[in-house]
């Protein structure tokens, strides 16, 4: 699937609640049921590596996994 809209409600250890809403670029499902989420980047690989050195730039894939709300690969 492509451009999959998802949302998940999260409760913190302190009891606060919030909702994460997002769109996953691509979801691949294998015949055995295993799922992969994919984040497309359309920039040069060197620029992407440089961005990953900045705090906060490496959170998209983990958030995709959280939004899927099931095991992913």
Q: What would you say this structure looks like, in words?
A:
- This protein has 73 residues and is α+β, with helices and mostly antiparallel strands.
- Helices cover 23% and strands 37% of the residues.
- It is built from 2 helices and 3 strands; from the N terminus they run E-E-E-H-H.
- It has a 3-stranded antiparallel beta sheet with strand order 1-2-3.
- Strand 1 (2-11) and strand 2 (17-29) form a beta hairpin.
- It is flat.
- 4% of the residues are buried.
Q: Can I get a quick summary?
A:
By secondary structure, this protein is α+β, with helices and mostly antiparallel strands. It has helices spanning 45-52, 60-68, and strands spanning 2-11, 17-29, 35-38.
Q: Which key phrases capture this entry?
A:
73 residues, alpha+beta, three-stranded antiparallel β-sheet, 3 strands
| Helical run tally | 2
Radius of gyration based on Cα positions? 14 Å
Number of strands: 3
Summarize the biggest pleated sheet. 3 strands, antiparallel
Gap between N and C termini, in Å?
A: 15 Å
Report the structural category: alpha+beta
Low-confidence stretches: none
Q: Categorize the overall geometry.
A: flat
Give the fraction of residues assigned to helices.
10-25%
H-E string: EEEHH
């Amino acid at each position: 699937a492509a451009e999959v809209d998802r949302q998940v409600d999260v409760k913190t250890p302190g009891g606060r609640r919030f909702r994460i809403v997002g769109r996953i670029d691509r979801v691949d499902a294998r015949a055995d049921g295993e799922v992969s989420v994919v984040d497309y980047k359309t920039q040069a690989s060197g620029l992407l590596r440089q961005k990953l050195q900045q705090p906060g730039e490496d959170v998209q894939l983990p958030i995709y996994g959280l939004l899927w709300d099931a095991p992913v690969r």
